[in-house]
């Protein structure tokens, strides 16, 4: 069952296309990473999915119903930095949200505070919270009505590495309960640890939708990345230039980008050119490296 759907979703501000004919489907229980540089249209897309703004064209659906509809009552959101009443405590802010939505008792509020490790700060005023604490409280608020869908925009902003790991485990636990999660983030290394599918956008348009490991493997199919070191670095760089291979100078080492069809003959070609190699190892490209190369190949300047 498709829980989240976007069909030719578009949003225009004046002459600017913030989102341009974006289409995708997300099934129940998926955790999907929504990636793109600042200004790519991620937050605008999330706001349209949540019914906060109207699309200029196209449509979105939540739980099989066109947005806006009663299906939004089953959606938890945390879009942009969460806002709270600063003069109220964390618990009272959640009580206020629960009262507006209805059907949430105090016991469950306390459960959610404990779930995001905020029970000890629940009686403090939000005005004294750090950004990371507000992020945790925002996640707790998005879970109050036991949503079937979560739309999260940069939920780990302001968190330290321990906090990021805790939120990651929280989201895994939630997904195992059948909740569908679309999470926008620029912290690619963190998404890589728990997201299996990536939707990538650039300038409001879709540039990739598929498994995370396939994104990396697709990049590897085009070219492999080797870390090279030689007794004479200048000879190494000159030989790579002569052979037409792109590379980065890493203080005497070369990170070379080699077409897969020529990878097997790389070392022999360099030796034949008189290069005395001391290291030649293939690097495993992570999500960030693959994604940044995807943007460059799509025309985005490096």
Structural account:
34% of the residues lie in helices and 30% in strands. With 302 residues, it is of the alpha/beta class. It has 2 domains: 2-212, P-loop containing nucleotide triphosphate hydrolases (Rossmann fold, 3-Layer(aba) Sandwich); 221-284, Alpha-Beta Plaits (2-Layer Sandwich), CATH 3.30.70. A 6-stranded mixed beta sheet has the order 6-7-8-3-9-10, with helices on both faces. A 4-stranded antiparallel beta sheet has the order 2-1-4-5, covered by helices on one side. Strand 4 and strand 5 form a beta hairpin. The model has no long low-confidence stretch (mean pLDDT 89).
Q: Topology of this structure?
A:
Layout: E1 2-13, E2 16-27, E3 31-35, H1 42-49, E4 57-62, E5 65-66, E6 75-78, H2 90-101, H3 106-115, H4 131-142, E7 149-153, H5 161-176, E8 180-184, H6 188-191, E9 197-202, E10 205-211, H7 212-222, E11 223-230, H8 233-243, E12 246-250, E13 253-259, H9 266-272, E14 277-282, H10 287-297
Parallel strand pairs: 3-8, 3-9, 6-7, 7-8
Antiparallel strand pairs: 1-2, 1-4, 4-5, 9-10, 11-13, 11-14, 12-13
């Amino acid at each position: 069952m498709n829980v989240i759907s976007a069909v030719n979703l578009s949003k225009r501000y004046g002459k600017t296309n913030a989102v341009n004919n974006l289409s995708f489907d997300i099934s129940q229980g998926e955790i999907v990473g929504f990636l793109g540089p600042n200004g790519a249209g991620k937050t605008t897309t999330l706001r349209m999915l949540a019914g906060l703004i109207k699309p200029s064209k196209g449509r979105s659906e939540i739980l099989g119903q066109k947005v806006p509809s009663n299906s939004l009552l089953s959606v938890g959101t945390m879009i942009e930095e969460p806002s709270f009443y600063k003069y109220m405590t964390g618990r009272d802010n959640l009580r206020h949200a629960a009262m507006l939505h209805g059907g949430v008792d105090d016991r469950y509020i306390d459960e959610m505070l404990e779930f995001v490790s905020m029970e000890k700060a629940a009686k403090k005023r939000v005005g004294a919270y750090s950004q990371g604490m507000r992020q945790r409280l925002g996640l707790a608020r998005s879970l109050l009505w036991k949503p079937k869908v979560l739309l999260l925009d940069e939920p780990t902003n302001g968190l330290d590495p321990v906090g990021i790991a805790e939120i990651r485990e929280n989201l895994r636990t939630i997904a195992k309960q059948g909740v569908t999660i679309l999470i926008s983030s620029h912290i690619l290394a963190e998404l890589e640890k728990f997201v299996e599918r990536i939707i990538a956008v650039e300038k409001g348009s879709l540039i990739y939708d598929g498994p995370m490991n396939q994104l990396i493997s697709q990049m590897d199919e085009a070219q492999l990345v080797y870390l090279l070191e030689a007794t004479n670095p200048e000879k190494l760089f000159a030989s790579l230039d002569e052979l037409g291979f792109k590379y980065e100078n890493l203080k005497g080492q070369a990170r070379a980008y080699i077409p897969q069809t020529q990878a097997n003959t790389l070392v022999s070609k360099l030796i034949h050119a008189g290069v005395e190699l001391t290291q030649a190892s293939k690097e495993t490209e992570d999500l960030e490296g693959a994604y940044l190369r995807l943007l460059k190949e799509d025309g985005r300047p490096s």
